[in-house]
Amino acid sequence: MSNQYGVITLMGSGELTATMVEVHKTLLDRQGAAVRPVFIDTPAGFQLNVDHLSRRALDYFQNRVGHTLAIASLKSADTGDGAQREAAYRLLHQANYILIGPGSPTYALRQWRQMPVASLIAGRIRQGACLVAASAAALTVGRFTLPVYEIYKVGQAPYWEEGLNLLGLFGLDCVVLPHWNNAEGGNHDTRFCFMGAPRLAVLEALLPPSTTLLGLDEHTALVIDLAGSRAAIRGIGQVTVRRDGVERVFRKGDALPLALLRGAPLSTEAGQRSTPAVADGPAPPLSADDVWDPLNALAEKIQSQLERNQVETATKALLTLERHIWEQQAILQERSAMGAAREVLRDMLALMGAHLGARQPADRRAFLAPLVEPLLEWRAALRAQHQWETADALRECLQQGGVTVVDTPDGVAWEVVGG
To answer: Record's InterPro entries (predicted)?
Structure first.
């Protein structure tokens, strides 16, 4: 194998968080003085906030990693003119550090199959470049790709789609599942990239026997040095290697022999243990979650207090819920769970509005002011930080709770719908 071959780094999540800053810096240092990092936006190309995500990546690299990042904007195969696409291809052709992150893996695959992106990336890796594929992008690089949204959100039966198989070009017959240890489901199993144990068992049965499954914990990176013989684990979690009913787990600092990713038996070594790919019986209990446990507990408290007509204490609990979401927003965004948290807040606001509407107070505005005005202060803070999507979602929450918010040249005005 050529000594020029570069590095493929797979991240379970967290590619733009504090946990991965040192990983990026170390990988960039390998490229010497002439570092040319590029970010590809295709996986999120269908999202209305795709440009915001690109700006976030630019800011992260400039202020946290210490390098200027270029954007190879390839939102879809059908948008933009030919000159724009060629400019993006030129950036990729010159890049020696390529970062791809969150979005939809199946959307990205549909677009890339109409573009020369995969061949460009493979060519750069052969010339010593580093590919960092995180979250949705990590799902695309293996022999098969998991259609996460189609199964988890839409309800389709478990299945695989053909992946880019960039790993296969370098002798690694693998499929990659990020978010391996995900726990945002709270009272239901969302491990194994939101699949849970029962669906994972079905998915593994559909794989060819020779194919290795790579499970990447969140905020964890597997650094595959293609010119070497081992891969390294960085970050805060573990990497799980599974094949033929056996798994081995590697932790931070461990060296993972590349032979295992090329089909060598996952036999046990001294001090290591083989376990079934999916254990019999129910899934093990999920550990406590500092984000979702308090959120669910507060939602239950609000409902209970409103049922007992304890409006003042329910209002305090609702404000605590809002503050908790604000304090945990970085983790929620990283887990792609901000939307779910907003749904909880929206439901509680609607419940509060319905309860207060049923009471018909003499002055509903005065009654609602202690609740609405702190929420509007939070919205103003969000707008000041250019977090437009979250600010708009909060405004929608208030609207569903019976409060109309209007931005005027003199400030924010609000009124209770129907008086």
So the answer is: Class_I_gatase-like, tRNAsynth_Ia_anticodon-bd
